[in-house]
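Morning run. Coffee first, then this:
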Amino acid sequence: MTTAPKPIALPVTAVTCLEDRAHVERAVVLDLEAGVQRLRLGPVSATAVDRTLHAELTADHPATVLDVRMVRSWTPRGPLPHTDDDSALRRRVRALEGERVAREQQRDRLHTRRDLLGRLAADLLREMGEGAGCGETDGPRWARELDRVDDERDSCGEQLRTAEARLAALAEELREAERAMCVSEEEPAELVGHVELTVETAVAGPVGLRLSHLTPCALWRPAYRAVLDGDSLTLETDAMVWQRTGEDWSDVRLTLSTARSALATDPPSLGEDRLTLTDRSVAERRTVDVEVREEEIGTLGPAPVLGLPGVDDGGEARVLRAPAPVSVPSDGTAHRVPLSAFTTAARSEYACSPELSPLVTRVVRFDGPGGHALLAGPVDLVRDSGFSGRGTLDFTAPGAPVELAFGSCDDHRVVRHAEESRDSAGITQRTVITRTVRLHLSRFSAPAEQGDRVVALRERLPVSEVSAVDVRLRRESCSPAPDAVDAEGIARWDVTLPPNGRRTVTLVYELSAGARITGL
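And here it is:
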């Protein structure tokens, strides 16, 4: 068996990016000799999953793959040697180290001098004591000597404090410079992977090799850009791709899939669910306890997740393909890859729900593309004035209606006031709750602005789930009466506002319940 002397390059040609990993394909043409030989291919990403490694050969003559495996090598990298053309940062580190050595030597000399001055002062004091005991008095000389020693000690102490302060500052500067040099100039340790391939061919000649494997540290998410131009809307579909596999993807065929290969295929285990019946008490038979609760009207789909959510594909695996070759470097940052774009007619309205927000929002509705579904993702909103904000697009089936909010209108304002009164009928003992909601809508226009604007106001009414509780809209007391009330109890008015116009909308409804009803 022959062994190739050096590695053979194995470039990435196609990538299928999944929700949290990628399936990488590599292709190369090998010039093989007859017989069994071992080839070393690479380098490749060291994060490749060994058990997913698959190789196949294509040739006009018999060729077989006997073995394929990943081989990894750890190469520690030390600091670069000093040269004459060092960077300014490296020269700065050497200068700081030289100054630190000089300051340390100066500090040692000052410590020695201070110790000598201390011994000199002790000798002088001992001489003064011995002279005084023998009757010798030389006060002026002793005073001069003591003053000179004290002055020298003070000067030495000041120089020592200055040297120690400079040494502390040098240590901090040197730590920062070495940290910056470690990040910018010293090469980190490197983990390199290669593929060892053992093949057998009957005839010498060129053979095509296709190798594939899974690798982590790669993912994608859908993103959109909606451009509103009058009555038409252009929706651009992009993919945000991240990868840090250790090797760059250069001019590869990129496929984006929502398949979740890591999910388990076993069905969930079933547990017992016991239902028990109990007799109601006398008090429970006499009264019916009800309560008012907030109920969110939602559609099918996953619950929102904080952070980076998964891809919502409606429960069916979707496959998207980039129309042109794509290059994604291994830097861990987001790269935007264009996928498709379509233009359609759009219907827009100015809508407001005063119970939720006093702002009037421009809402655009259009029909999605019929060829493919729109996955859930963020949308960059662009209109005549430029970038207006960012919204969220929910999963949309092919051809289904889509709704996007293009920001609020600062020249509109809605003020909401609600009142409630409670009354009881004497004979039937029914409780009647009357609620009055007044909506004051204003439009502030520029002096040259003309034309009316229609604002869709929405206010909700309670919806009763119990036959003993009745909700009735008093149309004769509303001003004006709602244009429509849907099954969820949402009342709608189409209010026309001229420039600098004001309108007041009044909604009145009743909740009535019998004497047996409690909780209202």
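The CA atoms of residues 349 and 363 lie 5 Å apart. Good start to the day.
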